[in-house]
Q: What sequence folds into this?
């Protein structure tokens, strides 16, 4: 079974233009992500998917594979859907290009269920949500059924604690694995009502009947959306 890790990355960013190439201890951020993906050991290959020549050039410099994609994709999943048109694999793993601290074992935890069970169409990750993030709408939560499949994702704290919560709140970790059929179908579906309301692309899969198996993993210590977060990541990397 062929597994391809795809890292969507683009220079355009409202809060931090050019962030994939920001220097983190002598390496561009995208290189840290590629190295974590390679260290996971699950992919037959790792490829960066980008609409930008600058990122293509940077990837060549440090020896990573990269493919040029359109510049009009609304999400990383749409970009991976384009990759799937020309690079055929059974499973595609979506690792976001602004997560230089993502543990390789989390990438592995996301992909493994699809590599071991051909009936699983899609997978993602959760971790225990820290108390200070339960009401933070920037932190996405997920609730699952008894078999571990996602019932719903929300920016609100779910389940609502009208009574004592029976289990810890689960924080969604934004790593995905999809079968080729699922990610290609995604690109043809219109944005659904739930996806539009929450601004969460994974809800499009649920709205169209694709079950998402949630595995437990470790989230990143910090993603990079601002120059200030990049400086914090430098300090974390420097302390390791």
A:
């Amino acid at each position: 079974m062929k597994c391809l890790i795809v890292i969507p990355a683009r220079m355009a960013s409202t809060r931090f233009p050019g962030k994939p190439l920001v220097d983190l201890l002598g390496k561009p951020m995208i290189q840290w992500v590629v190295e974590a993906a390679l260290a996971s050991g699950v992919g037959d290959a790792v490829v960066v998917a980008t609409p930008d020549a600058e990122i293509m050039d940077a990837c060549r410099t440090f020896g990573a594979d990269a493919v040029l994609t359109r510049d009009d994709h609304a999400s990383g999943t749409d970009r991976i859907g384009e990759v799937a048109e020309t690079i055929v694999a059974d499973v595609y793993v979506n690792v976001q290009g602004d997560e230089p601290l993502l543990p390789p074992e989390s990438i592995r935890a996301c992909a493994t269920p699809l590599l071991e069970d051909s009936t699983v169409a899609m997978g993602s990750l959760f971790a225990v949500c820290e108390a200070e993030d339960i009401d933070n709408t920037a932190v996405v939560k997920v609730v699952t059924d008894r078999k571990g499949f996602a019932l719903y994702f929300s920016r609100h704290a779910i389940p609502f604690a009208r009574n004592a919560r029976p289990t810890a709140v689960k924080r969604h970790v934004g790593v995905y694995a999809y079968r080729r059929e699922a990610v290609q179908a995604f690109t043809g579906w219109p944005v659904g009502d739930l996806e539009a309301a929450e601004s969460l692309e994974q809800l499009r899969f649920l709205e169209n009947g694709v079950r998402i198996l949630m595995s437990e993993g470790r989230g990143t210590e910090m993603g990079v959306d601002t120059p200030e977060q990049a400086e914090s990541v430098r300090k974390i990397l420097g302390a390791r």
User: Anything to note?
Assistant: Residues 40 and 108 are 6 Å apart (CA to CA).
